[in-house]
Amino acid sequence: MICPRCKTENGNRTVCSKCGYYMYRVANQNIEKRTSAQRALDDSKIVGKNVWKVLRVVWIGIVMLVLSFWIIALIVYLTGGSVILG
Ligand SMILES: [Zn+2]
Known about the structure:
Radius of gyration: 28 Å
Bound molecules: zinc ion
């Protein structure tokens, strides 16, 4: 077992040989069993989060594209196209 405090590998020990950290709490958490249904639910949540992350990046990209288009259009309108056409 790896100590969560100092990352020392302690084999089957429940107390860290280096820093004396009690690791039985961590061991109990790992033993805690989850049903496959719960696991599937958690997985779908993670997938859903990733989808939203991707969608948000795509959305920001679209907004930036539209904004830059309008800014260029505004500059062209205000300057009568002299910036781009010379
Ligand atoms: Zn330790």
